[in-house]
Amino acid sequence: MATPVLRWCCPGRRWVFAGIGGVSRHGRGVPTGSTSSGKRGQSSVAQQPLITAQKPRKGEREWAAVVGLEIHAQIASNSKLFSGSQVDFAAPPNSLVSFFDASLPGTLPVLNRRCVEAAVMTGLALDCHINRRSLFDRKHYFYADLPAGYQITQQRLPIAVNGSLVYSVCVGKRRSQMVTKTAGVKQIQLEQDSGKSLHDSLRSQTLIDLNRAGVGLLEVVLEPDMSCGEEAAAAIRELQLILQALGTSQANMAEGQLRVDANISVHNPGEPLGVRTEVKNLNSARFLAKAIDYEIQRQINELENGGKILNETRSFDYKLGCTVPMRDKEGKQDYRFMPEPNLPPLLLYDSESLPTGTDPQQVINIDQLREQLPELPRVTREKLVQQYGMLPEHSFALLNEVGLLEFFQNVIKETRAEPKKVTSWVLNTFLGFLKQQNLAVSESPVTPSALAELLDLLDRKAISSSAAKQVFQELWRSKGKTPAQIVAEKKLELMQDAEALEQLCRSTLEAHPQVVTDVKKGNPRAINKLIGLVRRATLGRADPTVIKEVLERQLSL
Amino acid sequence: MLGRTLREVSEALKQGLVTPTELCQRCLSLIKKTKILNAYITVSEEVALKQAEESEKRYKKGHSLGDLDGIPVAVKDNFSTAGIETTCASNMLKGYVPPYNATVVQKLLDQGALLMGKTNLDEFAMGSGSTDGIFGPVKNPWSYSKQYREKRKQKSHGESEDSHWLITGGSSGGSAAAVSAFTCFAALGSDTGGSTRNPAAHCGVVGLKPSYGLVSRHGLIPLVNSMDVPGILTRCVDDAAIVLGILAGHDPKDSTTIQDPVKPFTLPSLTDMSKLCIGIPKEYLTPELSSEVQSLWSKAANLFESEGAKVIEVSLPHTSYSIVCYHVLCTSEVASNMARFDGLEYGHRCDTDVSTEAMYAATRREGFNDVKL
């Protein structure tokens, strides 16, 4: 019975396939774990639900997956896309609803300038062509959180098209190498967000909060250039960083500011693309890759068992860890797209086409926005690598945590220590402590100045590196103390008196002739004993490397 | 006094020959007397009298707001009026009291006009007879004219007077009837495909449809967003010009209004016709045109020509496509604009609470009417 070969489409990711008898060809045992959420760990591979095949398979088949993404990012603006009501995510229900948002008859949309700028800036950052003329349309469907019965969007002619999103994935055995990938940006369009429905099953009612209705969204459509959950997650992460750097969206998935839908299909390489499904409700960064990979696996299993993939919409059930068909989307929806008659075409200008004598408040100049674009994450990372000689993956790590880069740069400013040392301390020690206690950089008890001072002490060889770690721990625990104070309190200064060290070494050698003999005999571990003895004698205040030097010299080795 | 032009009344008010309150009360009593016309859905008596009081204070101090200060006006019931029920003659909006004023209504009020009430119309302005609203049809004041009574007496004997009446045309029939019956000096209508001009012609008053984009639609409950405009109904052309001067201009709340500034204007008095060129579109002469209308049309053209104006034939070549375009736009935009009436946020809501879909369906079935094409 030939087991299908699964092609490694993703570096470091493997498509586990349940073979008959339970052992797949690639030497990895099939997990028989339950699908309960209690067993969910970080590695989604080990926890995949077991699917046993009933029929013999047809032969060797490779599979490739194709993943496209539709991302909705809430625009960071003071007011909504077409009305003046405020945008605030924590306000009491239905307190930020203008007459237009409530769809009172007779109200008309008025376009928000800041939202258009946000769309243009995002388009420029993603290397898109900005359409000088774009149009608004109505997309109709009936739902309680859509008061007007239609959403204003840009279906025919969106504001930006044909760009690309460059992102990186970790490859290699230890996932330490970064490989650059590109996903095409099909288009960016402006559209309205809907309100929120809260289903109260206890009282059989649905409560509608229209605070979110009408908030500006940027829909970014990524071409199906990704091939697995990890790539999709990496692309999303990079997009988040770009939006945050631009300030056009806070892009926080947990707060619903960034929502992702995935279009997924599988096919045998060389053959036409398969039927795709749409997976909605991917609103968690953690589960994004998992959900996509589950769906890919599900489709492979289905096809391998002789089944068919339906062109349907599914949603990811976080508790069960699988995708389920969305029952209320039966049949194809006819959105009856229609031009929005209350909004004339949106015209954008550049420095060349800008008519003379126009009121700058009334027009948008693309060239001006381009000049004012903040530095993009990719550029920031490149600069870090060039300036400080750090590895690319370190630059990614620094940008991946809110406030970490700033922290790093503040330490660099105040310390004489080498950038490589700073990088290591920030990414390993500092970040490690933060993660352990689940703190944000802004909540850190250790300030950049404190760390800088500590690194200076280390650099001057005033303390040993093990002492430095002790100091750091103490800094973390007790507020207000400076590294110098802690060093003094705990008597962690390295011995500066070279003569005294020489004396101690000599006396130790004299006190332990047997160990000296062992060393001279060639026992490599014997010298460590001597080092240990001297260290204890110095109360830990001598650097082991220096001790070793002195001992070796004295033993004339 | 009620038969005078706006300018004449305005002058009279300034001179104290008549007070706003007197004007208001006269119009209110006339509204009551002409109730049979069914021109008004809501008569805002208290509001109007209060406004009259304020206007009077201004006149006493010599601080009138303009030509419309203290002048009774009426507004078609598809314009949002803050605090006053706005129904669009539909069950769907029965009891709906908007929290804001339409821009054109606000402009009239800012000029000190007195709001007599909201006038009857075809439901949601869909119709050309003003017969299809839930409050019943509007009767043309000319139904009660001597000429018409004579004609009817000759034709039928013994039938009650009430069963024979003339329609006002539509959909702004209530506004046209209100103006025609002297219950106000000016009324706001709306015009999508003739809904101001049609009833104006039927009721013998002036109906002006401003060019799209000249007057703000903010607050006008829309039928066809691409074609709707607020319309003006008055008893003479000069009055229409005065009202247009007040209403026209860019509105930041309506993105389809033109940006160029609009200055109020006075119509020049036409004594020299030789500078006037009148175009007669040849495509309008269709076989369906009634002979009566055709002869009136010729009469008007001849009148201008005899006075020295140049009357020439012009071509509007896309005329034959206009009705087709109208139907496509009308049906799509109306379906789109009516999608918001689901009973959730405002307006009529049915009693069903089985599911959202069932609630939508029942609400819309109960709230809407049949469209008689």
From TrEMBL, chain A:
The keyword Transit peptide applies. It is an enzyme of class 6 (ligase). Keywords: ATP-binding, Ligase, Mitochondrion, Nucleotide-binding, Protein biosynthesis, Transit peptide. Residues 32-51 have a biased composition (Polar residues). One of its GO terms (cellular component) is mitochondrion. Its EC number is 6.3.5.-. Residues 406-555 form the Asn/Gln amidotransferase domain. One of its GO terms (biological process) is glutaminyl-tRNAGln biosynthesis via transamidation. It is found in: Mitochondrion. It comes from the Eukaryota. GO terms for molecular function: asparaginyl-tRNA synthase (glutamine-hydrolyzing) activity; ATP binding; glutaminyl-tRNA synthase (glutamine-hydrolyzing) activity. InterPro entries: Asn/Gln-tRNA_amidoTrfase_suB/E, Asn/Gln-tRNA_Trfase_suB/E_cat, Asn/Gln_amidotransferase, Asn/Gln_tRNA_amidoTrase-B-like, GatB, GatB_Yqey_C_2, Gln-tRNA_amidoTrfase_suB_CS, Gln_synth/guanido_kin_cat_dom. It catalyses: L-aspartyl-tRNA(Asn) + L-glutamine + ATP + H2O = L-asparaginyl-tRNA(Asn) + L-glutamate + ADP + phosphate + 2 H(+); L-glutamyl-tRNA(Gln) + L-glutamine + ATP + H2O = L-glutaminyl-tRNA(Gln) + L-glutamate + ADP + phosphate + H(+). SMART domains: GatB_Yqey (SM00845). Residues 27-57 are annotated as: Disordered. Belongs to the GatB/GatE family. GatB subfamily. Allows the formation of correctly charged Gln-tRNA(Gln) through the transamidation of misacylated Glu-tRNA(Gln) in the mitochondria. The reaction takes place in the presence of glutamine and ATP through an activated gamma-phospho-Glu-tRNA(Gln). PANTHER family: GLUTAMYL-TRNA GLN AMIDOTRANSFERASE SUBUNIT B MITOCHONDRIAL AND PROKARYOTIC PET112-RELATED, GLUTAMYL-TRNA(GLN) AMIDOTRANSFERASE SUBUNIT B, MITOCHONDRIAL. Subunit of the heterotrimeric GatCAB amidotransferase (AdT) complex, composed of A (QRSL1), B (GATB) and C (GATC) subunits. This is Glutamyl-tRNA(Gln) amidotransferase subunit B, mitochondrial. The gene is GATB.
From TrEMBL, chain B:
Pfam families: Amidase. Residues 146-167 are annotated as: Disordered. SUPFAM superfamilies: Amidase signature (AS) enzymes. It comes from the Eukaryota. It is found in: Mitochondrion. Residues 26-145, 167-370 form the Amidase domain. The keyword Mitochondrion applies. Keywords: ATP-binding, Ligase, Mitochondrion, Nucleotide-binding, Protein biosynthesis. Its EC number is 6.3.5.7. GO terms for molecular function: ATP binding; glutaminyl-tRNA synthase (glutamine-hydrolyzing) activity. GO terms for cellular component: glutamyl-tRNA(Gln) amidotransferase complex; mitochondrion. Gene3D superfamilies: Amidase signature (AS) domain. One of its GO terms (biological process) is glutaminyl-tRNAGln biosynthesis via transamidation. Subunit of the heterotrimeric GatCAB amidotransferase (AdT) complex, composed of A (QRSL1), B (GATB) and C (GATC) subunits. Belongs to the amidase family. GatA subfamily. Allows the formation of correctly charged Gln-tRNA(Gln) through the transamidation of misacylated Glu-tRNA(Gln) in the mitochondria. The reaction takes place in the presence of glutamine and ATP through an activated gamma-phospho-Glu-tRNA(Gln). This is Glutamyl-tRNA(Gln) amidotransferase subunit A, mitochondrial.
